[in-house]
Design brief:
The complex is a heterodimer of chains A (280) and B (142).
Chain A: H1 2-18, H2 32-36, E1 50-54, H3 62-65, H4 98-109, E2 136-140, E3 144-149, E4 154-159, E5 175-181, E6 184-190, E7 210-217, E8 222-230, E9 239-247, H5 264-274
Antiparallel strand pairs in A: 1-2, 1-9, 2-3, 3-4, 5-6, 6-7, 7-8, 8-9
Chain B: H1 2-17, H2 26-29, E1 30-46, E2 53-59, E3 65-71, H3 75-80, E4 94-102, E5 108-116, E6 121-123
Classes of the chains: A alpha+beta (280), B alpha+beta (142).
Chain lengths: 280, 142
């Protein structure tokens, strides 16, 4: 375990060095110069409007940021090795209750064959914003923020300074309301169904999930995205992750119709029927 | 500061590693321990979601022509990786493909890299192991 942590630290350090700028963890690390460089809307709030990429720390256009190693292997240089991120997994364990942890582990052992994404279902929050392969567009107005996701063609309309509706029907993406906390947009999300995953393989949740997102644009290119997931039915304590959204000027969202030719489902069914071994 | 920075980096490594880079699990369908390199002629090209596909006629060790099915990126990822529909790869093109075979033993593979007749190379799909949860589960193993 120590060795794995060391390897992870090295990979992490290398990756962060490759970011081209020191990592930032929140408002306390934003210098006055950087703060001045934050684009602001007419109402003085930081303007989050733009096209962004999750799961990346690289600055630049989509092409620049995904060259070489690329993100998730989308790089333009085939001679480059696979992204270390696709090979390396280390973190503190997610705080699942023991029975729930066993379910997450079983999904891992089955290599995520039960991934809701495999059925072209919406990924939910925050998972939908962690997928680096597809861009995200944020449209901000003084009264609402709209987030458009190319992946699965889903959207979020986030009214500001409003309360949740009392008659929510559980959904994959939940019901979002937002407010400004200084220069940070805080989004409160409830009303989820129990059919999605929080982040990685098997990280299921219940309909009691409560997500709090904090979006802080720390400079022109980067939003610090901090997410706290609270689900007393399956977690032992709230679970917080820190990641970023990086500006991708010039990238346009395009149509993505997952159900067009989703032959993998039938392939999985044949494999299961024929007893093809695939478990770890 | 340094400690905080390392913590953020560790969190980022996990996030890079864990979420779905692909639409579905690589490992459930393909075997990273069975790499394959195929040389042949393209007979069909499908720009479709959630995955693109093409067919390749290959001469096997017995001199027979057999058809392989290759799977790769979604359409938008191909576009952003430098592919152009009906231009980059067409029916009749001779190409070499590196990838990993399907677990069910059929002539099907996940295509990682395509090499064209002029030597140009392009990724066609993500690395082995994507979308299956990496090497470590998100929870502590008892």
């Amino acid at each position: 375990m120590t060795r794995l942590l060391l390897v992870s630290a090295i990979v992490a350090a290398s990756w962060c060095l490759a970011c081209g700028s020191p990592p930032t963890g929140g408002n306390q690390e934003v210098t006055s110069v950087e703060a001045a460089a934050i684009p602001r809307a007419a109402d003085g709030k930081p303007d989050l409007t733009g096209v962004w990429q999750g799961g990346s720390r690289r600055r630049g256009t989509w092409e620049e940021a995904n060259s070489g190693l690329g993100v998730g292997g989308t790089g333009l240089d085939p001679s480059a090795p696979a992204s270390p991120g696709s090979q390396q997994v280390i973190t503190d364990p997610a705080p699942y209750q023991p029975w729930a942890a066993a379910r997450v582990l079983e999904s891992f052992k089955r290599r995520g064959i039960d991934d809701p994404a495999g059925l072209c279902l919406p990924l939910g929050v925050p998972r939908i914003s962690l997928v680096g392969l597809f861009p995200i567009q944020i449209v901000q107005t003084p009264t609402q923020v709209v987030i458009l996701h190319e992946y699965m063609s889903v959207f979020r309309v986030i009214p500001l300074n409003a309360g949740h509706h009392a008659d929510l029907v559980p959904t994959y993406m939940g019901d979002s309301v937002g407010r400004w906390d200084g220069d940070t947009l805080v989004v409160d999300v409830v009303g989820f169904n129990d059919k999605g995953w929080l982040t990685s393989t098997g990280t299921f949740h219940s309909d009691a999930l409560h997500v709090t997102e904090r979006y802080t644009r720390v400079d022109k290119d980067q939003i610090d995205y901090v997410v706290t997931m609270d689900d007393p039915k399956v977690l032992t304590e709230p679970w917080t992750i820190h990641t970023t959204l990086m500006l991708r000027d010039g990238t346009r969202l395009q149509e993505y119709v997952c159900a067009e030719n989703n032959v993998e489902v039938a392939h999985y069914e044949r494999m299961l029927k024929d007893g093809v071994p695939f478990r770890r | 500061m340094a400690r905080h920075t390392l913590g953020v980096c560790l969190a980022l490594v996990w996030l890079f590693a864990s979420p779905a880079w692909a639409h579905h699990s690589f490992g459930a369908e393909f075997d990273a321990n069975k790499p394959v390199t195929l040389q042949g002629v393209v007979t069909k090209v499908e720009w479709t979601n959630p995955h693109s596909h093409f067919s390749l006629d290959v001469t096997d060790e017995k001199g027979r022509t057999v058809t392989w099915q290759l799977t790769g990126y979604t359409v938008n990822a191909l576009y952003r990786t430098g592919w152009k529909k009906d231009v980059t790869m067409k029916v009749g093109d001779a190409v070499s493909v590196f990838g990993w075979r399907a677990r069910d033993g059929t002539r099907s593979a996940h295509a990682r890299e395509v090499t064209f007749a002029d030597g140009k190379k392009l990724f066609y799909g993500p690395p082995a192991g994507t979308g299956e949860g990496g090497t470590t589960p998100a929870v502590k193993v008892p």
